[in-house]
What does this fold into?
Amino acid sequence: MKNEFEERLNLQEEITDQVIKPLETVEKRDYPDYTEATKKLTQAVETIGTQASGVKTMVEGLPKSITIRHEYAFDLKTKGWLIGLVVFAILFLIICSLYIATLSENRRLRANDLKYRAIRQVFPIQADWADRLYYADPDHMESITDSLEEAAKVRSHTKDIAEQSARDAREAKARLDELKGKIKKNNK
It folds into this structure.
């Protein structure tokens, strides 16, 4: 047991030596004096504290909402934007008008297609004749169509003139019969 105590005592002495020796070397070192720097730091902290309290009172004094007035003006920088906007608006209008024109043309063509398909069902020989002429020479088909339309106008005009002449003749005959009736009354 004595041995055990001696061992522990020796062990403690060794630990103490290991701790004390580094402390002695630390004590022997020449450390700078930080008291002056500490005073300056303390003063800086106090100054910052007073400034912070001043800022705090200023912030508390600010109104809850600030009214802001915006003023818009045109200057040389906005000139390009305005020109671009006008060009964009013009292009947009042109595209919209082309779209509307195309839409109406498509409706007209759809109606003509439907009419042609109906004619093909009722008069297939005439529709084949028109197809053959058109696919052979579209320009010639246009001149044939113009001449057919002109002939139809002439026939219609001639028919109208004949009907008008027949009406005039009936009216003249009725007038003649009326006059004959008056002459016969006067002779009696």
In short: Residues 138-187 form the longest helix (50 residues).
